[in-house]
Design brief:
D-Maltodextrin-Binding Protein, domain 2, 309 residues, alpha/beta, ten-stranded mixed β-sheet, single chain
Length: 309
């Protein structure tokens, strides 16, 4: 190889190294391909445009979001490494024996209703029919979630308590793998986020929509009752996703990031994208986001204590 070619290759490698060093990162707590990952990638691109930064998205799924937030907590608190995750690892996981390092809330991004689906392994198309089938089976039902200490897991436990069901918890590391196994009927029930792909499977009769965790029914599935309507208000839960920074990130940096997030969340086409997926934008300051996490943590503490009585 000629000397000039070697020099060109070396220069390219140096440029790549400088690029990687300069780029911001958002660590996403979910596998590629799911709705949370898709929203995070669109959000990252728009945030980067506003900040005039290149933002690299890095997927780090597992343990219901705990792996991503643990990684984030070890990053340099300069605002150049952020995390995208539901608040569950902070507001719920500690009550299941999984305490996390501290992270800094930056901004809420979206509220996502919880959807409970019946798979081809279930011979029921409504929640009451599922209850009858579960009670008639000596083995009960297998219920898949995205991990221990997630909103889906908490809803499962509330249903178990309220209706005295034999439920086997099947935890997954993220939405895409569990959805594939759901379509194959490898378990009977699935907790998932309300999302376009799941809605399509419901409308095509590949999965059965049984219950919704949300304050009101969803316009995308208006015939689907909420858990509160089905007699289990404690399971009527939804997920709040947001952006986080490492602990000790300066307040001025957090405020700058929060202001940029607010601009993204105010964009009409971004809000429409969320609405089309059954989600709604979460707005407010970093302090308001932190208070919402703390309030949800207090509610979860009471719920988990009641479950263990």
């Amino acid at each position: 190889m000629r000397r000039r070619d070697l020099l060109a290759m070396a220069g390219g490698s140096m440029a790549s190294g400088v690029f990687a060093q300069q780029a911001m990162r958002i660590v996403v707590a979910y596998p590629p391909g799911g709705v949370s990952d898709s929203v995070a990638r669109v959000f990252a691109q728009r945030l980067g445009t506003l900040l005039k930064e290149t933002i690299i998205v890095e997927n780090r799924p597992g343990a219901g979001g705990s792996l991503a937030l643990t990684s984030l907590a070890q990053a340099n608190p300069d605002g150049r490494t952020l995390g995208f995750c539901a608040i569950s690892p902070l507001a719920l996981s500690p009550y299941f024996g999984s305490p996390l390092p501290r992270v800094a809330p930056v901004s809420g991004v979206m509220h996502t209703p919880l959807l409970v689906l019946g798979t081809p392994g279930l011979n029921a198309s409504t929640f009451p029919d599922m209850l009858r089938e579960a009670r008639a089976s000596s083995n009960g039902v297998r219920w898949a979630t995205s991990g221990v200490g997630t909103i889906g897991h908490l809803a499962l436990e509330q249903v178990r308590l309220e209706f005295k069901l034999n439920i086997v918890h099947v935890p997954y590391s993220g939405g895409a793998p569990q959805l594939q196994d759901a379509l194959a009927g490898r378990f009977e029930l699935l907790s998932s986020n309300l999302a376009p792909l799941q809605i399509d499977y419901v409308k095509n009769a590949r999965l059965a929509a049984l219950a919704l965790g949300a304050p009101t029914r969803s316009p995308t599935l208006p015939g689907l009752p909420t858990f509160a309507e089905l007699g289990c208000p404690a399971a009527n839960l939804s997920s709040l996703f947001g952006l986080f920074a490492p602990p000790a990130t300066p307040a001025a940096v957090v405020d700058k990031l929060n202001a940029a997030c607010a601009q993204v969340l105010a964009q009409s086409d971004f809000r429409k994208m969320l609405a089309d997926g059954g989600n709604m934008p979460a707005t407010g300051s970093a302090a308001e986001f932190a208070r919402e996490i703390a309030q949800q943590s207090e509610v979860n503490a009471r719920l988990v204590a009641a479950m263990r009585k």
